[in-house]
Amino acid sequence: MQDPFFKTKFKKNSNFLLSVSDMYRIDKKAIEDGSSSLKLMSNAGKKVAEHSEKILKKYGLKNVLILCGPGNNGGDGYFAGHFLKQNSIPVDVFSSIDTKELRGDAKEAFKIFSSNVTTKITASEIEKYDLIIDALFGAGLSRPLNKCLVKLIENIKRKKKFVLAVDIPSGISGDTGKIIGKYCFQADHTVTFFNPKVGHKCFPGKEKCGELEVVDIGLKPKHAHKIIANIKYNSPSLWKASFPKKTWSSHKYKHGHSLIFAGEMLGATILSCLAALRVGAGLVSVVCNPNQKSVLSLIAPSIIVITDVNLDINKLFNGKIRYDSIVFGPGTLPTKKTRDTATLILSQNIPTVLDAGAITAFEKYRKALFSVLHKNVILTPHFGEFKRLFPEFSNMDNLQASFFASQNSGALCLLKGANTTIANPEGIRILSTEPESHHLATAGSGDVLAGIISGLISQGMDLFKAASAGTWLHAHAASDFGPGLTSEDILKTLPKSISEVFYSYD
């Protein structure tokens, strides 16, 4: 039986994220199976109307303005207006085009709405509305909003009106979450259909959506049975079953041995070591220069220190001690020595987290690195490091860039940033934007992440799962601490985050 983590066959109520083309195919299949496209539109409009009524009641709002575009998103808006009117809710509609130009289901929805629609609205007229429903464009928008709509958005923003977006805020790409052009709606709530899209979970789209609600409009999982869903958003449900646990019979030799190579900047090494221990690694050893030993022993006495000026790495790995994972790069300068050491480490085929200086060192020697990388390696670059190693993919969004980097290098790629993404060469990608991790923009946070991942791998966790779990725990711990976070604080809050995985996520 295939591990659910690696499963790509779509399953409802899972972590799968769909593309715009996926949704087109699902709609098409539903219609082929006998569903009426107009009925699906009506169902969508009814759900939007129901959600609108909840908002009106909750916040004590009254008057509704629906902004309708020329396509199916606009059709959803007309139906929403129809159902709101049936419930005696004051509603007006603005159309971005002359209604005589409407076609297909949108035209039929307009007829059912059967009320006056305006194609012009001033800033002063917006003042009288409490709730704005954005049904201009859905997730499939591919061009910037025109000047008239931009002006309308600016007026609504200036008036601080409550905005409910249909499918996705107009101006946001459903495939990337990026703003198409320079302007988009900032929604307070977004109602989407069947399943979240990539754009709902990627920044800035995630932020622009506000509170997201996924509703049922009659589409069934069977309509998605041919969809290959390679993108999932990160949560404990993906990897909790594989997360290492300690029991009454546990001892340190049962929970793996992480080996971390000290860099010239020793603070980074210490952070990695302590992070590996925090997530449960039984043993952590550090390879360092003799002059670093006293500092390590003083700050982190639980770490095993290995010192030898003329250290033979081959002897290190061929000795009696078995290492289950390696971290190389935190605090390391991008030198020839770093490249040589990395090459020797990678030749051992031990699961390795390659980070920071160990990545940058190969900026001009990419072929040399790619020749020794393998499936037991996780590359963990931030964007600057990524750009040095994979300049040809640096203009892509993280989901695309991480996949192509992984495919070309043969290693896993964990591309850090607002839209942190973990990808394997087969094209499976884990998008990690929850919990939100903006507090992680601080020195040393990447060193902590490298240590967390190594500690999980040492305990027998699959590399891909360890990278996903580590990223989630890392962000959760940062979010839990909040403003003023330093990397040392992540270590303090990690135990609480791990406890929540065990006791709060089913």
Topology:
Elements: H1 20-32, H2 37-59, E1 64-68, H3 72-86, E2 91-95, H4 104-113, E3 117-118, H5 123-126, E4 131-135, H6 147-158, E5 162-166, E6 189-193, H7 198-201, H8 205-209, E7 211-215, E8 231-233, H9 236-239, E9 257-261, H10 266-278, E10 283-288, H11 290-299, E11 304-307, H12 313-318, E12 325-328, H13 336-346, E13 352-354, H14 357-360, H15 366-370, E14 377-379, H16 383-389, H17 398-409, E15 412-415, E16 420-423, E17 429-432, H18 445-458, H19 463-481, H20 487-504
Parallel strand pairs: 1-2, 1-4, 2-3, 4-5, 5-6, 6-7, 8-17, 9-10, 9-12, 10-11, 12-13, 13-14, 14-15
Antiparallel strand pairs: 15-16, 16-17
Care to describe what's here?
This protein is α/β, with parallel strands linked by helices and 506 residues long. It folds into two domains: 10-229, YjeF N-terminal domain (Rossmann fold), CATH 3.40.50; 236-504, Ribokinase (UDP-N-acetylmuramoyl-L-alanine:D-glutamate ligase, 3-Layer(aba) Sandwich), CATH 3.40.1190.20. It has 20 helices and 17 strands. The chain has helices spanning 20-32, 37-59, 72-86, 104-113, 123-126, 147-158, 198-201, 205-209, 236-239, 266-278, 290-299, 313-318, 336-346, 357-360, 366-370, 383-389, 398-409, 445-458, 463-481, 487-504, and strands spanning 64-68, 91-95, 117-118, 131-135, 162-166, 189-193, 211-215, 231-233, 257-261, 283-288, 304-307, 325-328, 352-354, 377-379, 412-415, 420-423, 429-432. It has a ten-stranded mixed beta sheet with strand order 8-17-16-15-14-13-12-9-10-11, with helices on both faces. A seven-stranded parallel beta sheet has the order 3-2-1-4-5-6-7, with helices on one face. α3 (72-86) links the parallel β1 and β2. α10 (266-278) runs parallel beside α20 (487-504) and α19 crosses α20. The longest helix has 23 residues, at 37-59. The protein is elongated, with a radius of gyration of 26 Å.
